[in-house]
Design brief:
This protein has 209 residues and is mainly alpha-helical. It has a three-stranded antiparallel sheet. α1 crosses α2 and α2 crosses α7. It is globular. The two termini are 33 Å apart. The N terminus is likely disordered.
Amino acid sequence: MKVLISAIAAVVTFLSFESSVFAQSRADSIKWAIVRQLNDYPESHYRDVYKNFMQDNYGPGHILKDKKAAKAYLDSELAETNEFGGPLYEPTGYRGNFYRVNLSLIKEGIIPEDKYFDAFVRSVKGIRNPKIEAWKKEWAEIDEAYRDLGITLPEEDADRKTIEAQFDRNDFVMHHSEAFNRSSNFHYRIFSRRIFDTEIRPLLPATER
């Protein structure tokens, strides 16, 4: 699946400017985050854009209700995965409150699994998640910025209906599209920016910090 020509043109136009342009306003920062995602993950669906910004607000909390189950899932994912796509890490949304951190760091022996998982768990502590009404209001602002870019993504109407239905149930969680998972092969967990910067980043190879 491909982004429509109008979306590609919008992305190319935005990428032709210096990044400083996008620091001028909140709306521009949002647009830059969208453009960055579509540039890095051209197979993204609308739900993948939503998930990026949702993670910037809620972090990893929604998958850590059961610590034992979360550890078992991590173990199985590591055992069943031989190839890891995506970057070693990347910021979420437009604030960068959290980072997606690649499981390849464990697989390649750069970070011990216990240390990785412990930092992941502690990334939930102290999070003050926005109320669903506040998140709905912010998502409407993000969606407006998205529309301003003239983008239309695959299965967008269906994804919009799914998000609206979940909002009606006071639910904010969204999974990646199959297209995103298949094309990126990005296996990661979410870390708070503070924990990533102080505990994980220093362990990375100097060229990746």
